[in-house]
Amino acid sequence: MKSSGFLLFFFLIGICNGEEQENCRKVEMNPAKQDFILEKHVFKMVEIETASACEVNCFMEADCVSYNLKPQQNGKLLCELSDSDHANNQQDLRYREGTVYKSFKNRCSSMLCPSTKRCQTGFTRKGYRCVCANGLLGESCTEGPPLVQVVPDIIETVEGRNVTIMCNVTANPKPDRNIWTRSDGILSSARTTVSEGNLTILNITFQDDGSYVCTATNPWGTKSSSVHLRVYSALKLCTEGPPLVEVIPDIIETVEGRNVTIMCNVTANHKPDA
């Protein structure tokens, strides 16, 4: 079992170089504890064929520091990955006949990271790394890639009007600017302006019909959001609409044995399909 993790580490380290090497993981196993499991700290469960596969799964999960192996009735094993170990939670180690508990040597057993970050063992030359617990980035865990939203996602207008499309961007650090592009054509520089990140198109024409994309970039990444602009003829917009349906009269009285014809009058710009 030890060799599988050993070989996996060297496979990963072989494809890492320079700064990427800081993201490679090297771990050592503690002796297995037969007939024991660690409760209350499992974050993922996987059904596996062999015990060594559980070690590999734990190695690949950055937050995993220990695992339980439980035999199943179908002959397979249930691999339970935990984000803590018995060294930090001795009270959660329980006797369960037939099970196996294994853990990595955990540098994170000591309080090495600030309260805003969680510790992951086996990374960097120090043997651990601190990552933001809230999913954000940066030393203070307050930074991240932009959040970009164009509202609404569909805009309908008629020829000749001016349209302003709003692009809301939330980011820390703040992007230098928003970039607008067309996904299905060229953005006309003569009739478009961008102010405070919002796009204004002057004197709308049929050629402006299409999708527009707002993109924002900061040091943590690039995000985009799009809107579809639909342009109609003013005349067409006034003369078209859903069918008008009228059945006359609304009450018909008859007796058994007679034939009855019920009239349905339909008025529409385009003839209904049925």
Give the count of structural domains. 2
Low-pLDDT residue intervals, each spanning 5 or more residues: 1-15
Q: So what's the overall shape?
A: flat
Q: Biggest β-sheet: count, sense, barrel?
A: 5 strands, antiparallel
CATH homologous superfamily descriptor of the largest domain: Hepatocyte Growth Factor
- Rg to the nearest angstrom? 32 Å
Order of helices and strands: HEEHEEEEEEEEEEEEEHEE
Q: Enumerate the strands of the largest sheet in spatial order, edge to edge or round the barrel.
A: 1-5-3-4-2
Q: What fraction strand?
A: 35-45%
Based on helices, strands and strand pairing, what is the structural class?
mainly beta
CATH class of the largest domain: Alpha Beta
Number of strands: 17
In percent, how helical is the residue content? 10-25%
Q: Please give the alpha-carbon distance between the first and last residues.
A: 70 Å
Protein name: Ig-like domain-containing protein
InterPro entries: Cell_Adh-Cytoskel_Orgn (IPR050958), EGF (IPR000742), Ig-like_dom (IPR007110), Ig-like_dom_sf (IPR036179), Ig-like_fold (IPR013783), Ig_sub (IPR003599), Ig_sub2 (IPR003598), Pan_app (IPR003609)
Signal peptide: 1-18
Pfam family, one: Ig_3
Task: Provide a descriptive summary of the structure in words.
The chain has helices at residues 2-15, 51-60, 234-239; strands at residues 33-38, 42-48, 66-71, 77-82, 93-103, 117-121, 128-132, 144-151, 154-158, 163-172, 178-182, 192-195, 198-201, 210-218, 221-232, 244-248, 263-267. By secondary structure, the protein is mainly β. The chain has two domains: 18-133, Hepatocyte Growth Factor; 148-232, Immunoglobulin-like. It has a five-stranded antiparallel beta sheet with strand order 1-5-3-4-2, with helices on one face. A four-stranded antiparallel beta sheet has the order 8-10-13-12, with no helix packed on it. A four-stranded mixed beta sheet has the order 9-15-14-11. Helix 1 (2-15) runs parallel beside helix 2 (51-60). It starts with a helix and ends in a 7-residue tail after the last strand.
